[in-house]
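This section describes the prediction task in plain terms. A model, or a person checking by hand, is given the sequence of a single protein chain and must write out its three-dimensional structure as a string of tokens. No templates, partner chains or ligands are provided. The sample shown here is typical of the held-out split.
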Amino acid sequence: MSTLLKLLDIRLPILQAPMAGVSTPAMAAAVSNAGGLGAIGVGATDAETARQMIRAVRTASDRPFNVNVFCHRPAVRDSTREAVWLSRLSPIFSQYGAVPPSGLREIYTSFVEDDAMLAMLLEERPKVVSFHFGIPAAQRIAALREAGIVLLATATNLSEAKIIASAGIDGVVAQGFEAGGHRGLFDPEALDDCLGTLALTRLLVRALEIPVIAAGGIMDGAGIAACLLLGASAAQLGTAFVGCLESEADAGYRVALFSAASEHTAMTRAISGRPARCLANKFTALGAEVEGGAIPDYPLAYDAGKALNAAAKTAGEAGFGAQWAGQGAPLARKLPAAMLVAELRLELERALSRQGTASADESVNRQHGSVEPG
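The expected answer:
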């Protein structure tokens, strides 16, 4: 069994992405019970709600799971830019019989300054905590490590990954440009090299001593196998779980995911203020018409984006939703989460068995950790 699987105390090299607003305690518990690492995203909620989510997972599972927090730079206010953005959205609100917010709120508190969330995590002590959009200060990392918590963080390039490794974090999630949802960029204003999952994974495996978890566009066991053969210790899948029964994806999101719309995704800042990959819809079309600098900071823009989606949904229009999805979206399946993990395991074994005469279990055990039945 690989170092990472031992560290996480899981049997399968399969991690469910902690998709805030989509993943649920029920999903996390099902994935963990099936032998992978389930996850919940708490970056979009407060400490007490996050505590209840953690306890809900524990009610349904005694297995390890991941709790993900956002480490974005707090928003820089620009009243003129915010007012212009709301004015730009006003005619669209009007189409659906609504008016935009009078002002924008910073709807999410970054973990870099959320003392209540840190205190809660130190009290609840989940097996794994992961960071997105960067990493917190050294003191926060040290406190979590001292509590016996395994730490993971997302990197989109080698520079970010080296920062993660030097901070004493246990593993790095290599997020390729194919991935759905928000880019994990430490600095969204910096040049994005748009590295794909396979190239990024191989770069990090070669450069780092900590385990690498491949993420982005991975939807089945063959994709997982490809990443393992490149040296990744595991793969993290997000879009693959959006269609699961335990997902909180709404009806419009699900219809789009399981239609021809899944064949087209777009990277946009317009919905939230940070680059994120979404199924191509009315919101991504709007984003294609504006310069990134015209959009307020994350999560201020998301305040307007959520309000617009709510107004449009009330009028029967689902095209302004944050329908996050990776480029592998057409491969999504409608399955309970546990059944999906079981299918992924079987597909992984078949894919690895085709690489040589060794059995899938022997191959993964030798290179990356065993694939054992759930």
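For orientation: Residues 357-363, 366-370 have pLDDT under 50 and may be disordered.
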